[in-house]
Structures are given as C-alpha cells and as structure tokens.
Design brief:
Length: about 700
C-alpha cells in the first residue's frame, strides 16, 4: 500500500511539473526569438499553401498550417535591395530612397528592425545569399554578425549570372549562427536568413532537376523548401518561444505581360508575395484575406513582441488581426478587425528600366479592389474580377466612374513623389559587376527621380516588350558563346531604339571578346554619348585603349572619371596603378594600388599591381604579402605565383619559392611564354641546392 502511495505521489508531482513546464512555455515573460526568412524571387502562387498543385513545398505548407497565412501581400518594389529595404524598415522606397540594386545604400538615419531589436537586448545576425544584399548596401545595420556573399572580379563589363550561395550552404551557416545564439540562452535572438535559389538562372540540384525538369523555377522552389525543412527540424528546441516569419522580396515574371524575369513592370506576377507567421500564442491554420504590404511586416513583428517602437515605419502593425490560441492571454486589438480595418494603398515603383535602358520610371498604386499603373496612357484594373490584370478599364470601359478612380489614384500617387532620404551611393564598379552578373543590368543615375518619371520622349517599359524579349534572347546567345547571333539581335534593338543603353554596352563587350577593338570603340563611344555622366563607358574605353597599348588615351579616360567623382573607385585606381607601372612611375603606382586595396580589399588586381611595383623597388618583404593576397583572391593565377616565387627567392626563402614555382608551372599553359621561364627557374633552383 505504501509503495502504491509513493508511486501515486510521484505521478502527481510529475503531472504538476508538466503543467508548470507547459505553462512556463506559454506564459513566460521572456521575450520571444525572431527568425525572418526572405526567399528571393518567390511568387506566392507557386506555393502549395497558396493553391499551386504539386508544388513540392511540404515544409512551407506545414509552417502555414501551424500558423497564419496572409493571402494577399504586395511588395513595394520588384527588385531585391529596394524591397528588402522596405521589409527591414517598414518604409516605402520614396522614404528610404533605395531605387535599385546598384549605386544605392540604405541610409543610416533610418531605424531598421535589427537596430530596434538590438536596442531591446536582442542578439542579431544575418546570413544572406546574393551580392545585392552585401554589407556595403547598408542592410547590415543593427546586425552583430552579417554573413554576406563576396564576389571577386576585376571586370566592369555588364554580364549576366554569377555563382550564388546555394540554400544548403546558407542554411548550414544559419544553423552555426543559431548555435552561437544558444550559448547565451538568457538573451533572445533575431536571425535573418535570405535564400536566393528561385532567382534566375534556374539550376536546381538532383533530384529536383529531374522531378521538375518541365519547370526548373519550381524545382528551385522545391529545393529551397527541402533546405528550410532541415532548418525547421534543427530549431525545434526553441520553436515554442520563437516566431518564424517567411516572406519574399518579389515574384517572377514567367512570360505573363511579356516579362520573363522581374524589375521591368509592376504587375502582381512580380509583386504578390507570400507572408506566413508561426509562433507562440498564434492559433494555427489561420488565413487572413485582407490585403497587406511588405512594409507591414516590420511593424507587425514588433507588435508580436509588444514593442511599440516602430521607428519610421509607414506600414501598419497587423498583429492585432491574428487570432490567439487557447493558451494565449493576448487578445486581438478591438480596432483591428476585418470590418473596420482601413484599406491603405499599396505603393510600388521600379527604376530598373530607366537605369538600364533609358526608358521611363514606372509607379503603381493598389487601392482597395483597383490597381493603377502610371504609364503614359495609364492602366487601371479591377483586381476583384481581373486578378491577372488583363483588362485595362481605361481602354475597355472608360466611363466617368472609371476616369474618376484614375484621377483619385493619380492624386494619391503624387504624394509619393518626394524622397526624404539620400540613398545614392558612389559604390565601386565591383558592385555593379556583381549586380549585372545576377541578371541585372544597371547604370548610373542620370536624372533626378521625378524628372526621369516625366521624361516625355522616353518610352514606357510596357511599350517595349519586343525589346525585352529580344534582349533576353540576345543575352542567352551570349551566354552560349553565339556572339554573332547575339550581335544581330542587339543591333536590331538599337536600330529601333537608339537610346537602348545596355544593348550598346553589350555590343561593345562582344566586340572586345572577339578582338574587334575598332568596333568596340564605336559601341562604347555611342554609349558614352548617350550617358556622358556614366563612368562605365569611360572605363570600357580605357580598357580598349590599354589593349591597343595607347596608354596615354587610357589614362585620359580614367582621369576624366577621377576628375568628377574623386579617388573612390578601387578598379579605377587599380587600372591607373597598372598604367603607372607601364610608365615606370613606381612610387605613384604603389600609392594608387595601396589606395585601391584600402577601397576594396577583395580586388585581386590591386594587390597584384601593388606587388609588382614593390618588387621593382626591391621591397620584397612587402611585395610577398601583396602577391599572397592576390593569389588568395584569384586562383589559379600563374603570373602572380611566378612573381610571388621571385620575391620569396630574393628574400632568401628558397624552399617556399620552389613550391610557388611548381604551383605556377602546374597552372600555366605550355604555350605561354612564361612556361619556359618558370621551368628555367626551377632547374636553377635545383642546381643551386645540389651545388650547396
């Protein structure tokens, strides 16, 4: 009997303990953690939880089943950096001022989600997966640790795609950061994870490439979902006190409206994004049909944490709309419900086509059931009956009521025209190359934003669908090495659209690639005539002049850039250092190369030219680390290895020099004139050792 009584007491205590533990999880005063996941280029309608059949997204679907899903959420920009700037600050592009992926930086004057959470004692970290979100773009503000993607390339030519950080690696790095957070369990954390894979080009790994061979974009989404599944499984220990927020920066045009990517137009194919929240005290399985905006995400996260400091957010805290579960003490705000929640307009803009092709800026306003596009003629759609935006009411039903709605939208849009922040950034051409390598083509800002919007002679991007299709086809032929076919298409574009900036730029690139330097000069000169403010054509013309060994002309082009923007571009300084080496001006070469390494420590050519100049001055002790840095940043590089070996040898480090010579010989082609010289140095090195 006593034994049974003891067992009963133990069971009661265990039961009470379990109740206490459960209650602690739900009624704990400890602040909740935040994991924000942004998936690049993810259309909401391509997820299973948004109705797409056979989506291959079970993990995201499970997240939605266990939380709340907003069915109609719209981004403020169809580009990565501007949209993320809106997500992280809760502000429209007209306030944060970031209008593109290149030549902009998020102003430090704006409070970000990370800054605010850090001020409340949060540990903060981010892991991002593409160049438009590198730390020099300002989105690293407020993060204790910021793991971004570094791209090392000395080219300033517009390209197409660069390697991305795959989702698997991003999640692996994010989990390492999560482990760091776990070392301070008494402090809440904010972790931002950005995955890039659904962005073009679409190359999902197996088995997703096989399963979705007919739709590789969907294959990338399914692969991303699988990687997120590993994240969700690993963070189970903290999920009961963690809000997981999943969204996208923008969608993707998959042929609708003649758009094969994003950034050109403002249709909902590229603006409709997912938004899912799972977390403590939120009743599972909710769907909120009232439309929301990307700028609402930041204040809503803060609202979930009972933080009333929203910074300068223009978005609205929607946390009061979420139904609490049975264990929650939090109730929906009485003023936040489906009947009287104010229908605030959703603003969007894109400057991409203007900056890349010289076309007009596009703006749109989604207000209630209507969506207005501020093109020259205007486009107005009733999304309740025409969600695909196929029937322009201003053409099909231009009655007085419709015209009045247009005027109302025009008037509302006028309030978004003045940017309160200066976000223009004189970033290096390295960043331009990174962005162009990701499929974006960009140029310097040539007009004030509103002047660009009203530029009368420029076409609307919506009028240029033929050029967009031809441009993408030409880029594809370039990627496949079919330069002649690409040249025909680019030439057809500029014949009909003589101001098409990037078509001239890529014609120049093709000519350089085929050593037709005379024609390259003609194309780049045309681009320079169209946009004399741009640095890129001057740099390209300088490169051609260097190939022609016209060093004086090359220096004139580069000096013209320095005269207008100062010595703040690492690649210009690096090129000038090379020209000074060719002129035997060693001290000036050292100064310029050193300054280039300060401006961009990841620029290989700057370290190489610094090493060459120091080697000539017989300062081998300083030349050795310069060559070592160049080799680390760009490998294989036989010429750098050779000069590195020379300096090691002169510095008395003969064993290390031998290894460097061997590495150079391993990487160099036998028909390279340097091949014989490296062999001679190795034989000489072996003879000296034998004689010793």
């Amino acid at each position: 009997m006593k034994k049974q009584l003891v067992i009963l007491v133990i069971l009661v205590l265990l039961f009470i303990g379990s109740i206490f533990t459960f209650a602690t999880l739900w009624w704990s005063d400890s602040p909740a953690n935040i994991i924000l996941i942004t998936i690049d280029t993810l259309r909401a309608d391509r997820l299973g939880c948004y109705g797409f059949p056979d989506a291959g997204t079970p993990n995201i679907e499970r997240l939605a089943q266990n939380g709340v899903l907003f069915t109609h959420v719209f981004a403020q920009s169809p580009l990565t950096l501007p949209s993320h700037s809106s997500i992280l600050t809760g502000t429209n592009p007209t306030l944060h001022g970031v209008r593109g992926n290149s030549f902009y930086r998020l102003p430090s004057s704006l409070p970000t989600l990370a800054k605010i959470l850090k001020s409340y004692g949060y540990q903060t970290a981010a892991v991002v997966s593409s160049a438009p979100l590198s730390r020099d773009k300002g989105v690293d503000q407020g993060f204790d640790e910021y793991d971004d993607v570094a791209e090392n390339d000395d080219s300033w030519e517009p390209g197409r795609y660069l390697a991305e950080r795959k989702a698997e690696e991003t999640i692996s790095r994010a989990l390492k950061q999560y482990q760091k957070f776990s070392q301070q369990p008494d402090k809440p954390f904010f972790l931002w994870i950005h995955v890039f894979d659904p962005h073009a080009e679409y190359q999902p790994p197996k088995p997703f490439s096989d399963r979705f061979a007919h739709d590789l974009y969907q294959g990338e989404i399914a692969y991303t979902d699988a990687c997120l599944g590993k994240l969700f499984e690993a963070i189970i220990p903290v999920q009961q006190n963690t809000f997981i927020v999943l969204t996208a920066d923008h969608g993707e045009g998959l042929g609708e409206h003649g758009e094969l990517s994003h950034g050109y137009f403002l249709y909902n194919t590229t603006l409709h994004v997912p938004w899912i929240i799972q977390g403590p005290m939120i009743a599972p399985g909710q769907k909120i049909g009232h439309y929301a905006r990307s700028i609402d995400i930041m204040p809503t996260i803060l609202g979930l944490l009972d933080i009333q400091n929203y910074g300068m957010a223009q978005g609205q805290d929607l946390s009061g709309l979420l139904q609490p579960n049975q264990h929650s003490t939090k109730k929906p705000s009485p003023e936040m419900n489906f009947t009287n929640f104010p229908a605030r307009p959703s603003y969007a803009e894109t400057y991409y086509s203007h900056q890349a092709f010289g076309w007009r800026v596009l703006k749109s306003l989604h207000w209630g059931q209507y969506k207005y596009h501020a093109t020259k003629a205007g486009e107005l759609y009733d999304l309740a009956t025409d969600p695909q935006e196929k029937h322009n009411l201003l053409i099909e039903h231009p009655n007085p009521e419709i015209l009045k709605i247009q005027e109302t939208c025009k008037s509302a849009l006028s309030k978004y025209q003045i940017s309160m922040q200066s976000a223009y950034s004189q970033e290096s051409e390295q960043s331009l190359h990174q962005a162009s390598g990701l499929g974006y083509v960009s140029g310097y800002i040539t007009l004030q934003p509103e002047q660009a919007l009203q530029e009368a002679n420029a076409p609307d991007p919506t009028e240029m669908q033929w050029a967009i299709a031809k441009f993408h086809e030409a880029q594809t032929w370039m990627e496949l090495g079919q330069d002649q076919k690409a040249t025909v298409l680019f030439s057809e574009i500029v014949a009909q659209d003589p101001g098409n900036l990037m078509s001239w730029a890529l014609l120049g690139k093709i000519a350089v690639r085929n050593q037709d330097l005379t024609r390259a000069i003609q194309h780049y000169q045309k681009l320079h005539d169209l946009r004399p403010q741009w640095a890129m054509p001057k740099k390209a013309l300088a490169d051609v002049a260097m190939q022609l060994k016209d060093y004086a002309q090359a220096q004139r082009w580069l000096q013209a850039i320095l005269d207008t923007q100062g010595e703040n571009d690492a690649m210009i300084l690096s090129r000038l250092a090379y020209l000074k080496i060719m002129a035997n001006d060693w001290s000036e070469a050292i100064r310029l190369a050193q300054k280039a390494t300060f401006q961009d420590p990841n620029l290989p050519s700057a370290w190489f030219y610094l090493g060459l100049a120091l080697e000539n001055q017989q300062d081998y002790a300083k030349a050795i680390p310069a060559f070592r840095a160049a080799i680390r940043l760009r490998s294989p590089w036989p010429e750098a290895q050779y000069h590195y070996a020379l300096c090691l040898e002169h510095h008395g480090l003969k064993d290390a020099a031998k290894i460097a010579y061997q590495k150079a010989l391993q990487d160099i082609r036998p028909n390279d004139p340097l091949y014989v010289e490296i062999q001679r140095k190795l034989q000489e090195n072996a003879g000296q050792k034998k004689g010793f």
